[in-house]
Amino acid sequence: MKEVAASRDVVTLQILSPMTKSLAHQFAEYACALRFEDLSRETVHEVKRRIIDSIGCALGAWNEEPCRIAREVASEFSAKHGATIIGTRHQAPPDWAAFATGCCIRYFDYNDTYLSKEPAHPSDNISAVLAVAESVGASGRDAITAIALA
Q1: Phi and psi (nearest 5°) for 11?
Q2: What per-residue confidence (pLDDT) applies to 5?
């Protein structure tokens, strides 16, 4: 461990060897190294099922009041390289697009295609991944990989 003085505070810098990497660091390395080709055919198939389910739920809920309100709020913000709010042509910053689209996805999603021991559902992450993927021009394969990872 190496200490460096910075004004009145002491900042501690730690050089991590492979044996002392934090769990978060190991997860980050795994996430950065994961490629579409590393995913099994079954995983890709299941991710596609979750995307289709999520889009169906979002479109079904599009006219519901909470979804309309979320869309109206998100539409107050614009971004040149943003993400499309589902069902519109409006480009909002990715976080706002993910919020409005996520509200639509979750409104009618009863988790009927995903039964697991944990309480989270993959659709909780899909709107965020799709928004970021669109805003950075990621490929479909990159989006699928990110959803599998999320």
Answers
A1: -100, 130
A2: 45
User: Judging by beta carbons within 10 Å of its beta carbon (0-12, 13-18, 19+), is residue 46 exposed, middle or buried?
Assistant: middle
Q: Is residue 9 part of a domain?
A: no
> At residue 33, does pLDDT exceed 70?
yes
**Domain count for the chain:** 1
Coil, strand or helix at 13: strand
Residue 107 lies in a domain: yes
Q: Which residue has the higher pLDDT, 11 or 118?
A: 118
The answer to whether 52 and 64 have CB atoms below 8 angstroms apart is no
**Domain range for residue 112?**
39-149
CB atoms within 10 A of CB 79: 15
Q: Flag whether 27 is in a domain.
A: no
